[in-house]
Amino acid sequence: MRFSKGITAIVFVFLLIFCACSRTGVNSDILKAAEEGDLKAIKKSLKNGADPNAKDNEGATALIIAAKKGYVDIVSELITNGADVNAKNDEGATALLWALQEDHANVVSQLTTNGADVNEKDNEGTTALIIAVQKGHVDIVSQMIAKGADVNARDGENVTPLLWAADQAHTDVVALLLAKGADVNAKDNEGTTSLMRAIGEDRADIVAQLIAKGADVNVKDNDGFTALMKAAEKGCVDCAKILIVNGADVNAKDNNGFTALIMASEEDNTEVVAQLLANSADVNAQTADGATALIMASAQGNADCIKVLLANGVNVNAKASDGGTALIMASGRGDVDVVKILIAKGAKVNLKMSDGSDALSTAKLNGHDEIVNILKSAGARSL
């Protein structure tokens, strides 16, 4: 029997459709088997012609799925049958990145042994080393570096492994990265260094470790903050001590003119205030708006800091750009104890702000009757 050319073409098309459907079926089977951890089904699917690199709706291959689940035997089987160890899903994540994220160390070893690229990045710029660092797994960090991981690779926010290690306070990981050539003064997008991140976690041990490896104690972030300012703001006494001993500039200013002393005074970190003053911090330094440490402390009612500042020669009558004084700030707050302390130390009760208000009018406006009486007893005059 002879078929016409038209019939032959139709038969051929149906055969193509049948083969495509069959291939789609076995590909679905291998992805399902990987999800369920069914090694027997994996082998059957591969025998029936399944593509070891077929992807699901999220771009994940069977290898990625198995690695995420921790099925090391399936990972091995897929690699043996041609699975791409560096294939990525729609988020750019490889099997290695998922294995690290899910803490499957045996899968990590299997993948790296079989050529997984340790420097591949996902869509957010995350590398295998960065994940291992974030997890604090020093052994895996060492393994990634031994496989050629870039210790100074940056993620999408410009954060290096060392910056992450300091941020997560993983001391052993910090030491390993430094020993392997990590840039101790690298900055992220905000200009923050590893030293600054360690201070954010109040880790004096890591601060000392970083300084010993050459961390710049006076470098500034994008806001003009130094490491010492961060320590002062957070009240990290031991960190501040180490920084000062290693040459931190106690009078450096940020972009708004704040010094470490002003920050510590505003945040009521009295011990740091005393430490800074003992190391030549300018007690009368002013911000860009003219505020002093005393004015900022008084605005917050930080009595202990105020006492330390007054004992170290601060100008009790200094004025900010708007004419505000420490006494006016305390009177507005209704802080009786601070008002008494300031007056006892010579605060002038009749100084006026640029808008004409003074301590007495501010106290009256805010209904602080006891302070009104204290001010009047000290010679405050009503307009």
Task: Describe, in plain words, how this protein is organized in 3D.
It is a single chain. The protein has 383 residues and is mainly α. The chain has a domain at 18-88 and 97-105: Ankyrin repeat-containing domain (Serine Threonine Protein Phosphatase 5, Tetratricopeptide repeat, Alpha Horseshoe). Helices cover 54% and strands 0% of the residues. It is built from 22 helices and no strands. Helix 12 runs parallel beside helix 14 (237-245) and helix 21 (359-365) packs antiparallel against helix 22 (369-377). It is elongated. The termini are far apart.
SSE inventory with pairings:
Elements (H helix, E strand, L loop, with lengths): L4 H32 L2 H9 L14 H8 L2 H9 L14 H7 L3 H9 L14 H8 L2 H9 L14 H7 L3 H9 L14 H7 L3 H9 L14 H8 L2 H9 L14 H7 L3 H8 L15 H8 L2 H9 L14 H8 L2 H9 L14 H7 L3 H9 L6
Helix pairs in contact: 1-2, 1-3, 3-4, 3-5, 5-6, 5-7, 7-8, 7-9, 9-10, 9-11, 10-12, 11-12, 11-13, 12-14, 13-14, 13-15, 14-16, 15-16, 15-17, 16-18, 17-18, 17-19, 19-20, 19-21, 21-22
Task: Provide a brief overview of the structure.
With 383 residues, this protein is an all-alpha fold. The chain has helices at 5-36, 39-47, 62-69, 72-80, 95-101, 105-113, 128-135, 138-146, 161-167, 171-179, 194-200, 204-212, 227-234, 237-245, 260-266, 270-277, 293-300, 303-311, 326-333, 336-344, 359-365, 369-377.
